[in-house]
Input
Amino acid sequence: KIVGTRLALEGINVSLYPPETGWPNSFDSRANSICNDVNSKKYIGSLTTHTYGDGFSNPDILIPKLQTMKSTANLCNKKLWITEFSRPGQDAKENYWSDGKYMAQHIHNALYYGDVSSYIAWEFYDAPQPIVNKSKSKFHRFNTERQYIRFIRPGAVRIDTQSGDSDF
Output
C-alpha cells in the first residue's frame, strides 16, 4: 500500500508482485491481507510465492497447497506466479536423471493444480544448487525446464488429456 501509493504519486506506473512468501503455508494469510485491502490490491500485478519447504523428491505433496493458493489468487482476481524453486539440501555436483523427473513433476503440478502463469527456478546459474554451473555444464533439471521454456510460447493454451494407462 505504501510503496504503490508512493510510486503512483511519483508518476511511476508499475505493478508490484507480492507476497513473495518463501513457504506455501504463509502464502494465504499474506495474500489475503493484500487482497482484502482495496488500496493495496490495485497495485498488484500477480500474487507470487515460492514452493520451498517440502521434499524435492515428493512433488505431489504440494498439490493441496497449490490448490489452496490457486483459490486465493482466483478470489483476488490475480494470476499466481511461482517466482522461486530449487532443489535444496543436495550436492550440486550430482547430476541425476531423477532430478529432471522431479523437476518436471513440480512444474506440471504447478501448472495443472496451481494454474500458475509463471514458474521460475532459483539458482539457475552459479549458486549452491545450480541448473547450469560455471563450467557451462547443464544438469538434468536444465533439460527439463528447457522443454517448458522452449515449447510453451506466449498465447499458448493448456488442454486436458487423459491416459488409459495407470502409470501416466
In short: The longest helix spans residues 97-112. The chain has a mean pLDDT of 82. DSSP finds six helices and four strands in the chain.
